Amino acid sequence: MTNIEKIDVVQDIYEENDRIALETKESLEKVGVFVINVMGSPGAGKTSSIINIIRSMPEESFYVIEGDIESDIDTIKLKELGINAVQINTNGACHLDAPIVQKYAKKIDMDKPGILFIENIGNLVCPAEFRIGEHIKMLICSTAEGSDKPYKYPLAFEKANIILLTKCDLKEFVDFDDDFFRKGIKGLNKTAPIFEVNAKTGEGFKEVVEWIRKNR
Ligand SMILES: Nc1nc2c(ncn2[C@@H]2O[C@H](COP(=O)(O)OP(=O)(O)OP(=O)(O)O)[C@@H](O)[C@H]2O)c(=O)[nH]1
Ligand SMILES: [Mg+2]
User: Fold this and answer.
1) Which of 67, 100, 123, 145 has the maximum number of C-beta atoms within 10 A of its C-beta?
2) 3-state secondary structure (DSSP) of residue 115
3) Cα(65)–Cα(69) distance, rounded to whole angstroms?
4) 9-65: per-residue pLDDT in tens?
5) Is residue 7 packed enough to be buried (19+ CB in 10 Å), middle (13-18) or exposed (0-12)?
6) pLDDT of residue 10
7) Fold for the domain defined by 9-215
8) What's CA 109's distance to the chain center, in Å?
9) Per-residue pLDDT for 3 more than 90?
10) Residue 113: CB within 6 Å of ligand 1?
11) Is the CB of 171 under 6 A from ligand 1?
12) Residue closest by Cα to atom 25 of ligand 1
């Protein structure tokens, strides 16, 4: 009879992913690049927040990897603003993983120390499960999505190092319940700060930038 050895494929995939993520993180650390994995639902305000942070830190060099299932709309937008960006299209995959990020990170000439934003695929589920070489995870959540999101999609909130609540200008129109939202997060994550922002006016980003400067 043949000997059958049972292997845990899912476990192996995560381990290999984490190994490559660590490799990317360490190689970028060597050139002084701090990596922020930007996660959130489609349209939550990920690109808008990245742009606001970049504008608020003129002393810094920035690089962006844009992850989308299709299109290069966000990358074009960033390039038009003079931001060094490359696009990854996953053609269906709902998250970025470490191997694809490692491949595309090599396509950006990171000639100066700075900050690399990796905008993950718009999705509140899968991106939270995969390390991609980041130092921190920044979760972007908008008031328009509703205040119950921490309860329905806990992993993203649990893993976040910093949370931005965007579209605060729309709060009154979407019946956003602040207490319910914050209570949901506190039950999952006691350390991540929550910053309320408005990407249209830039309000709130000064505090976000101060936090990044302190924690990088
Ligand atoms: N009123 C208001 N609109 C916002 C704010 N932030 C973003 N938006 C708008 O929301 C829409 C989506 O913003 P994006 O920054 O493209 O969101 P995203 O998360 O990058 O979207 P995907 O990459 O498609 O997942 C755009 O029309 C923005 O102008 C905000 O604070 N207030
Ligand atoms: Mg975007």
Assistant:
1) 67
2) strand
3) 13
4) 777 889 999 999 999 999 999 999 999 999 999 999 999 999 999 999 999 999 999
5) exposed
6) 76
7) Rossmann fold (3.40.50)
8) 21
9) no
10) no
11) no
12) 42
Instruction: Please give the number of the atom of ligand 1 that sits closest to the Cα of 121.
Output: 25
Ligand 1 in contact with 170 (CB < 6 A)? yes
Q: Which ligand is nearest to the CA of 46?
A: 1
Ligand index nearest the alpha carbon of residue 39: 1
Residue of minimum CA distance from atom 4 in ligand 1: 167
Q: Please, what is the angle between helix 46-56 and helix 205-215, to 10°? A: 70
| Among protein residues, the one whose CA lies closest to atom 27 of ligand 1 | 43
d(CA 121, CA 95): 5
- Between the CA of 203 and the centroid of ligand 1 the distance, in Å, is 14
Give me the chain's average pLDDT, please.
Answer: 96
Ligand 2 centroid, distance to 8 Cα (angstroms):
35
- DSSP, res 124: S
User: What pLDDT does 204 receive?
Assistant: 98
Two structure tokens written together for 16: 């290999």
pLDDT digits (tens, 9 = 90+) for 153-195: 999 999 999 999 999 999 999 999 999 999 999 999 999 999 9
Mean local confidence (pLDDT), 189-211: 98
Pocket test for ligand 1, best of 36, 46, 48 (most atoms within 8 A of CB): 48
Q: Is 123 in the pocket of ligand 1 (CB under 6 A)?
A: no
What is the model's pTM? 0.95
Specify the DSSP class assigned to residue 82.
T
Tokens matching residue 138: 């920044």
